[in-house]
Specification:
Blueprint: H1 3-9, H2 19-48, H3 53-80, H4 83-107, H5 112-139, H6 146-175, H7 177-195, H8 212-224, H9 227-259, H10 262-283, H11 291-297, H12 304-310, H13 315-343, H14 349-361, H15 364-378, H16 380-398, H17 402-406, H18 416-422
């Protein structure tokens, strides 16, 4: 066999799927396989220890609070230190905290404060991991195939999430939640090992800065100088919140009263997951020229599930609506990542990502907490129609921003100096930071470390 024949037979990665991209995608698949099952396992662990629904909520909130508190710090650290080291350190913290959680559950009855503390450590790791991960992913892709690369990444992530949730549920039924938490800890260790091999040689050394606050101010200027960026972040801060309220509170209530219980609602959520996988597949081939216009138009279908629950429509129609919503929001997700990739200077990617993440999740806890009082005050049907109306109105408002309508796809990334010249005039002050959007949960590239 000649060397040339051997080369032809050896499987080759696409030109755009470089070493870093391949490692990042593999690690994301591993962590999503483990983490989706662990989300279910942690709830059952609390219930198995004698807790109630309120205790489950406390453990979940314990993870969210440090995530909100430390996100901006995590973004500044990731732009100052080598990103892969930040990611590995965060994975190590997640491995230790989740491993300790598993040991407590397997050893007997864990105390509520112990589970809350370990969940808080996991949220802290996620706060440092997420901006570093997004910055690393966005910097690992070059040229005209960026959209395809991001679509494939999200395809693997969503597919692993669906498989992980199904596998986790089955393993909990057979072995109990402790072993599923242990599997998740091992997944963090494996993913961290993969990320340790990332190459940052292509990233220019960071120049010494003026400290953490100065770094955060620079990141805010990058966000505030681009109306298309902060407008969409602000839009999704509310959109994510009302979607979370509809999915976590209103949807189960309608399902229990009108649709036949948890089974049909679980089927609808699974259809949404299948839609995201399909949408990622669509974006492997489709390259809309006006990135954000195409993406924003595909946010309107996010209003459909709340409207369908308000009617309510039959289960088959709800499943179809959820599938369509999953497809459409994935079009937005890939378009958003592509826009950030081409418009944000590489050395500021993680800081911009941290503001994006913070806006996405900041209003979710309040929305889910207020969903019950809103249902009591206005009724379930009116609350659901209100969710739909907010999504439609905010999405329509964003279309009035010229940058959202006119941002075109390019094959080359904007350099630091070009980005400064191309940035639109700032019209948002630092006092509005809390009004912004992981990326909404619906459009985040990854929800796990």
């Amino acid at each position: 066999m000649t060397p040339r024949t051997a080369d032809r037979r050896r499987p080759r990665r696409p030109e755009w799927a470089g070493r870093n991209y391949t490692l990042l995608t593999a690690a994301a698949v591993v962590t999503n396989l483990g983490s989706q099952g662990a989300l279910i396992a942690s709830a059952f662990a609390v219930l198995g220890a004698g807790g109630d629904a309120g205790d489950v909520g406390l453990v979940a909130a314990s993870r969210t609070v440090p995530l909100v508190v430390f996100l901006l710090v995590g973004g500044a650290v990731a732009d100052r230190l080598p990103r892969h080291r930040v990611m590995v350190a965060a994975n190590a913290l997640n491995f230790l905290s989740q491993g300790a959680f598993a040991v407590l559950v397997l050893a007997g009855e864990p105390l509520l404060w112990q589970m809350m503390l370990l969940s808080a450590l996991g949220g802290t790791g996620h706060a440092f991991f997420s901006p570093a991960s997004e910055g690393m992913l966005l910097s690992s892709v070059r040229g005209e195939h960026a959209g395809r690369a991001f679509a494939l990444y999200r395809l693997g992530m969503h597919g692993a999430g669906i498989g992980g949730a199904a596998l986790g549920g089955a393993l909990i039924a057979v072995f109990g939640p402790g072993w599923v938490l242990a599997v998740d800890a091992v997944a963090f260790a494996v993913a961290g090992s993969l990320r340790a091999f990332l190459d940052i040689g292509h990233i220019p050394p960071r120049e010494p800065g003026g400290g953490l606050l100065a770094d955060l101010r620079v990141g805010w200027r990058e966000v505030g100088s681009r109306p298309w960026l902060w407008a969409i972040v602000a839009q999704f801060s509310v959109v994510n919140a009302v979607v979370a309220a509809a999915e976590a509170v209103f949807g189960p209530l309608v399902a229990q009263a009108e649709l036949g219980g948890a089974g049909p609602w679980g089927l609808a959520l699974a259809a949404f997951g299948a839609g995201t996988v399909t949408g990622a597949g669509v974006m492997m081939r489709w390259k809309p020229r006006r990135l954000l216009l195409a993406g924003t138009l595909c946010v309107f279908p996010l209003a459909l599930p709340s409207a369908a629950l308000a009617v309510p429509v039959p289960v088959t129609a709800l499943v179809a609506v959820m599938f369509l919503t999953g497809v459409s929001i994935e079009v937005f997700g890939v378009s958003w990542m592509t826009a950030l990739h081409q418009e944000i200077p590489e050395d500021k990617l993680s800081r911009v990502s941290s503001y994006d993440w913070l806006g996405s999740i900041a209003m979710v806890p309040a929305a889910t907490a207020l969903a019950g009082p809103a249902e009591s005050a206005f009724g379930l049907t009116a609350s659901l129609w209100g969710c739909s109306a907010l999504i439609v109105l905010l999405t329509a408002a964003v279309l009035f921003v010229p940058g959202v309508r006119n941002l075109n796809r390019r094959t080359e990334k904007v350099t630091g100096s070009e980005a400064t010249c191309a940035a639109e005039p700032a019209v948002l002050g630092p006092g509005h930071a809390a009004a912004e959007m992981e990326g909404p949960a619906a459009r985040r590239p990854s929800a796990s470390g």
